[in-house]
Design goal:
- With 294 residues, the chain is an all-alpha fold.
- It contains twelve helices and no strands.
- Helix content is 72%, strand content 0%.
- It has one domain: MetI-like fold (Orthogonal Bundle).
- Helix 1 crosses helix 2, helix 2 packs across helix 4 and helix 11 crosses helix 12.
Length: 294
């Protein structure tokens, strides 16, 4: 039987429509967020082919030229093409935000599992440390770490990742404390299963679904934090193409009428953060068992 592209596309569309009927608006919110992320991800991957100019080239056209058919988003005060900087800047902000969320996930989840499962003095000490970090506003904590570590891609990634570790820890620890009292966990202990086996086979699978939602929302927040730190001069050096840096540079020219230098970086930051937020909110609703009871 030969494969028909039209039939395959029809099945895909039918599947999407079926999921839309099953989950309602939450499904379309998820799809919209995923499409935004996919579009910017493709822009980052194929930046060299999409950007018409080198983002560092200071001779692309007239200085402070407004958007036109050659420079879609205009030029900045150094005669660099703003659109090319937006395309290449997507790589920087995605790398920092996603890596920061991954680092915090790989530290927060294991520590929450071990702390909640072991209990005792170790659990109390670790909970006290995490609660102390959690009590600080995220941006203030990130500013403190960024100031200590200095500018740089790795340093800003570490500074941003620290503020999300307590989130994963508190979430996973709370669920671990509840799950370890379940009958199937007691049965696993009764047949001689070791602590690591119980954590990996019986507890971890039951907490990972919630952390997926938190991960997407943390990436959205990390995008805003990274841009804010760079805007304040505590994030990335001027030699790195970044939306937050362009936003900081553009504010000086807004009073004189060069609106494009601050509008486009701000819009790109907002759109990317919105994409991850919509993806997270859609997943949160779809993974909620009570939704299926409507």
């Amino acid at each position: 039987m030969r494969f028909s592209p039209a039939a395959g596309m029809g099945r895909i569309i039918s599947g999407f429509t079926g999921l839309g009927k099953k989950y309602g608006a939450e499904w379309w919110i998820l799809v919209a967020g995923a499409l935004i992320i996919l579009a910017i991800l493709l822009m980052a991957v194929f930046a060299e082919g999409i950007a018409p100019f080198n983002p560092y080239d200071q001779n692309t056209g007239p200085q402070l030229s407004p958007p036109d058919e050659v420079h879609l988003m205009g030029t900045d005060n150094l005669q660099r093409d703003v659109w090319s900087r937006m395309v290449h800047g997507s790589r920087t902000i995605l790398r920092v935000a996603v890596l920061a969320a991954v680092i915090s996930l790989f530290i927060g989840i294991p520590s929450g599992l071990i702390s909640g499962f072991s209990g005792g003095t170790f659990d109390r000490i670790l909970s006290l440390i995490m609660d102390s970090l959690y009590s600080f506003p995220g941006l203030i904590l990130a500013i403190a770490f960024a100031a200590m570590l200095g500018p740089g891609v790795i340093n800003i990634t570490v500074a941003v990742s620290v503020i999300y570790i307590p989130t994963y820890f508190r979430l996973v620890r709370g669920q671990t404390l509840q799950i370890k009292e379940e009958l199937y966990v007691e049965a696993a202990r009764a047949i001689g299963a070791s602590g690591p086996v119980i954590l990996w086979k019986y507890i971890f699978p039951n907490v990972i679904a919630t952390t997926v939602v938190v991960f997407t929302l943390n990436v959205a927040d990390a995008i805003m934090i990274e841009a804010a730190l760079t805007y304040l001069g505590l994030g990335l050096p001027p030699t790195v193409v970044d939306w937050g840096m362009d936003l900081s540079m553009g504010k000086k020219f807004l009073p004189s009428g060069q609106w494009w230098m601050i509008t486009f970086p701000g819009a790109m930051i907002s759109i990317l953060a919105l994409g991850f937020t919509m993806l997270g909110e859609g997943l949160a609703e779809i993974l909620n068992p009570r939704l299926l009871e409507r």
